[in-house]
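A further point concerns the way the authors explain their paired sequence and structure data. Since the whole study asks how a given chain folds, the encoding of that fold should be made plain. A single example would do more here than another paragraph of explanation. An entry of this sort, consisting of the sequence and the corresponding backbone structure tokens, reads as follows:

_____
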Amino acid sequence: MSRAWVALLDAPAPDADAQAPLEELDGRQAGWLVAWLRRSKPVRTARRADPRLIDRDGAPALLSIVWPDRDRGLLAFDDLAVQHARRAVLAAASPPDAVSTLLVDDSHFAGSITVRRGGDADDDPFARVEPARALRVGAGVVGAFPLPIGPVIERHGSAQPWPWERF
């Protein structure tokens, strides 16, 4: 099984499978979104994401990135706030181009990345769970994929970042 890993880094990573510069909405540089498609964790700060999020042919996008500090402690995926955010993503009138929760283990919510091309970065239900950062990402790192049909809320081994729709 291939896994996808993402990290927010200050500089490009020479061994990355996909990466693009990040910038604040006011145009200031904000580092790099770096992604790897491999089983093992590539750098200490990487978090696991849905592999469909990574697309080397992906167009530039507006991101809402929720990246909670691990030292503070992380919420479990069973937490009502996280479950409500997942339901709200599925119920949105204007769904994102892609969304993935982020993992550091099999049971804790370690953030999310919501991708929009057109629309508003403020429309991110996960930003009500933890503070979000709105950033622009260059081409070549994030793609688009449809969300699952229905609320896939129950646990299914916790081996995949949501919205993985298969058991």
Summary: The chain has a mean pLDDT of 88.
